[in-house]
Amino acid sequence: MSAPAINLPHVLAELGAVFERYEAALIANDVAVLNALFWDNPLTVRFGIAEIHYGADAIRKYREHFVSPANMPRQLRNLVITTFDENFATADVEFLRDGDPVGRQSQTWVRFPEGWRVVSAHVSMLT
Description:
The chain is α+β, with helices and mostly antiparallel strands. The protein has helices at 9-28, 31-36, 56-65, and strands at 45-47, 52-54, 75-84, 88-96, 103-112, 115-125.
């Protein structure tokens, strides 16, 4: 088995564009786009700041019923996107929101026939 190709320019550009689409949807609280960018599967996992979701259905329910659009704008810093071959990537970033400690977000992305999807996500705050 050979080592995967890391950060192929075209794959890195694709994932960068998808990450920007996700970020714009997050700030706008565009639930339809956020839901579409997560893998629609019971194996999808999202660990939030104060919640844990196993499966795409639980993530959708959370987004549709419990997420408030208040204080969504944020600044990103130290974004690191790493792609492995053509179909797997990670995105890790720190974020700042007024009055909050530094936040951290990690996502694992996989390219499926329908496009790039988050298969695992973790959001936390430094305390």
